[in-house]
Amino acid sequence: MLLRSGRHRVTGLDVQVFLETCPRLKIFRTFHSIHFKEILPLDAAILSDGTVHGLENDLAGCRFAKPWACEGTLEALKIGFEMISATPWHHRIVFAQLGRCRRLKSLTLSPSSLIPTLKHGIDLLEGLQETLEEVPLWSSAFVFDDKESVLWMLDKFKKLTKMGANAYDGSSIQEQIMEWVPPEQRDRFEFIHRPVQRVRVRVV
What we know:
Low-confidence stretches: none
Strand content: 15-25%
Mean pLDDT: 87
Distance between the termini: 54 Å
Shape: globular
Largest sheet: 7 strands, parallel
């Protein structure tokens, strides 16, 4: 299913509620992003003063979310997440939700500001290692260039044939990643091709 805007302006909250209430979804793609405050789970860490860990000074608009109803059926997902900070705990909440989608084969995170590192939660996707085949884009705001995380993905996800690094082909970041990766596994990575600049020649 592709969720688009019609007469009603679709919001990230609409997307979150849809996923919470629609079982048996196999394919879901949207151009919208879910805000972190809209995916905060009921069991989020609560401090002694009643505030949420990491949101002590910013609880306005916070909503306690339910698990997605399609966790047992979803196979392909394109979605974005709008994060409010680089706090690892925040990102791990989102990756935990993605990790519960145990049949997921394709995952595209765009437009998204998730940080794709082990510290921020990609280790919570380990339960997908028997199904996940492609991650065309880890993040539209960050580059997938953390050495420990890159090597962990290569080691754990044997079926994964496509990973987007969100870096340009021919860039220093690509060269760095290729130095870490064994030659026989380099074709598992995808890089952004720079647009070809066309030069017009005017003949007088």
